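Fold in tokens:
===
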Amino acid sequence: MTKVLSIASFNLLRMFRERANLFFVLVFPLLIVFVIGSQFADDDDAPDVAVAGTGAFVDRSVERLEDTGAASVQRVDSSAELRDLVEDRDVVLGVAVPDDAEDALRGGAGVELTVMLGPGDGSTQVEGVVMRAFEAEAVAADVTGYLLTLTDAAADDIGEVVERTVAAGAPVEINRVLAGGADPDDEPLGIDQVAIGILLLMTFLNALTGASALIQSRQYGVSRRMVATPTSLRLIVVGEGAGRWGVGMFQAVYIMATTAVLFGVSWGNIPAAVVLLAVFAAVAAGAAMLVGAVMHNDEQAAGITVMVGLGLGALGGSMLPLDLFSGTMRTVANITPHAWANEAFVELSRRGGTLVDILPQLGVLAAFAVVLMSLAAWRLRLTLTRP
């Protein structure tokens, strides 16, 4: 065991002696999480819109719009003030309503609303909700005007009856679900999802770069000198594998801890998350050892590891969340260990899962690790014992 730990600790020390590794291991992952996470981060504030106009119709429309929670409404006194707010980007959209809109609707005349759209996609996204609020309130005023033509009752009395009728109507309830029965409100694509993807991508990629160190050990005769000592091949293979695993595990735990402290990323059940990291790091270690045992020079290995690491990460949902994949691509993604690890982390962080809930994913990842480690050990033994 002492020899295994010596080989593993040497690999960690070797990694940190390279100053470039310090940046890619300690700084680069956090920069990616911050930059990309800020684009996906949830924004709980409703967009601001402004409304110019007075009267009962405007009051009712603004109240209906605010009840939807889709926009925060600011009342202004004039169309000129409204235009300034939109041009200065203080609001995403503005609506100018004639002050006589209520009387015009009750008289059967149409009302022209002026909608001022701000730059960007935010205005067009909220425009439909804003317009539906005003259109819904226009119906009540229209009905009131029509009834006035059929009776001699006072306008205020008819208006009150229409408003009570509208209020007494049976509500339409909308139940939003995701395919499979999950709650869509529990499925945000925020910084948590970005951090999960970056953790898996960088853990696998940096572990793979350890393949060049293994190749250099073979080229410089370090591995053969270890074989010449009273150290079995099995211990050498296990030690080299533990070294690759240590690199991956250090990277993963570091990213998990720092993103939780700096960005408030939730990793869910921490003990289960650590177990998941350990198994995924074993997969990365097996892949690194296999590349290191097969390739003949570290320059060739460097190109292969970057290409394989980025390709598997992209296909496995580490760059684009699996929720955004099509059904076919989601199925194809399951050939990568990243997809299974992503699903397990989603279960832990967003659905409150425990170790028991991610046992299927852990089983698949363990199978990946066993296969890769076995192939790597066989190839490394063959390489070290070859004349």
User: Anything to note?
Assistant: The CA atoms of residues 70 and 129 lie 7 Å apart. The mean pLDDT is 78.
